[in-house]
Design a protein that fits this description.
Pathway: Glycan biosynthesis; sucrose metabolism. Its EC number is 3.2.1.26. It catalyses: Hydrolysis of terminal non-reducing beta-D-fructofuranoside residues in beta-D-fructofuranosides. It is found in: Cytoplasm. The protein has 2 domains: about 325 residues, Tachylectin-2, Chain A; about 140 residues, Exo-inulinase, domain 1 (Jelly Rolls, Sandwich), CATH 2.60.120.560. Helix content is about 5%, strand content about 50%. The chain is built from 2 helices and 31 strands. Strands 22, 23, 24, 25, 26, 27, 28, 29, 30 and 31 form a 10-stranded antiparallel sheet that branches. A hairpin with a 4-residue loop joins strand 29 and strand 30. The protein is globular, with a radius of gyration of 22 Å. The mean pLDDT is about 95. The protein binds beta-D-fructofuranose. Beta-D-fructofuranose (FRU) binds next to strand 1, strand 5, strand 9 and strand 13. Beta-D-fructofuranose binds next to strand 1, strand 5, strand 9 and strand 13.
Length: about 500
Amino acid sequence: MELLREKKYIRIDQVSQKDIDMLILKVNSCSWRQTFHIQPVSGLLNDPNGFCFYNGEYHLFYQWHPLGPVHGLKYWYHTKSTDLVNWENVGIAIQPDDYFDSHGAYSGSAVEHDGKIYLLYTGNTRDENFERHPHQCIAIMDAQEKITKLEKSVLDNVPAGYTEHFRDPKVWKEGDRFYAVIGAQRTDKTGGVCLLSSPNLLDWKFEGELDTELDSFGFMWECPDYFEIENQGVLVFSPQGLEPEGDLYQNIYQAGYVMGKKIDLQRKELVHGNFIELDRGFDFYAPHTMVDPTGRRLMVGWMGLPEIEYPSDINGWAHCLTLPRELSVKDGKLNQKPVPELQALRKEKGEVADRIKDEKKLYDGFAGVTYELECEFEPGDALEYGIEFRAGEDEKTVIKYDAVQGKIILDRTLSGEMIGSAYGTERKCRIEGNVYKLHMFVDSSSVEIFVNDGEEVFTSRIFPDRKSNEIRFFATGGSVAFKAVKWDY
Ligand code: FRU
């Protein structure tokens, strides 16, 4: 959906309440509205921003264009929660109404300092020729949750050697200094990450580029995030411009990480292993992490992608955030688990255990549109086994293990309304051993599948008819035993 440039930059306070109410009516009439994911009241949501824990609550912000499902003038929208499950819509946090963010309050992050939350973000501006000029900006949230922007930006030029694509600072504290990684495009049109530092969050210094082993890896790295976990240094980022390679890099843009030694801030160096995609599904981008008071590293991503149209667009809204996941390190890789708090959503429970052979079976109580399903398999000699869900007469979404290829496959060829079909309708990845567990969270228009206790995750939007609610277990070319538990949500 393309909008005229002038329309994309209309501010919410220039629109009448009547028009907003009509937009919200249209949004609420959509049968694909989610039930347990963070989604916008109207318009478009993209990156999660400023995830933090402050005064006993989790605060999570996101990129928001209120007036329609397009990437127009971006605001920061504020949600908060005491339990990571029930989120309260607080409202607009940052308005793009200053000289340094006139064309969008773009992505950024949060850190607590002196009893307040400092939000470091990119102010996007455009000049009379519509050329971008990014500023790095600070807004401060006090204990009453009042958010005030500084009067001036804290870094208002792009360092030599980089283009105007210089944005998305992710801040952390190390000793008595603050550091931030920031996404950048070099003037030779390759992506990288730069390092900023500050003694007080108000005066920022450009330290230089972070030296990684990925010299030419896409044309831009968006939304970097650096953290340490189990004595490893991890740099998460969303590179744009990678060509597909076998099963890898199938989406328009990627999101993943490199892991290795802790960052060397003096030398501005990160020694690391290969780039690994964080998610194997169709819709996952711009993940953002925080560490909570219990020491958990939590991650939330945008369940969507830039430059792709989605079926809910006609209803005036697009996208949602993923469920919060806890990260850990397993076998040299990041492992992701849905946070246990989500169990509070569990209602009616259904259970089944069976052995199936060359067949597809439905079970009483196993159907639905919004649910959690945990299925443990004891693989026998089946060549393929898995689950069809949100299935009906002509529709189904399939997750299966192909024992011949040793791969797990998510197939949304028949999932309902098509999304980004130019990028294919199957996603797969290799699994060491076999698939012994699928843990799925199905909402009205999405699925998140944690494979083998978080070894791999497939995150995807799906847009089936509400009547497509069957769950079918199947095995082909042999048998598999399984036990499954389902909770309605
Ligand atoms: C990633 C991104 C960021 C930018 C934001 C604007 O999806 O393009 O780089 O800050 O979205 O909404």
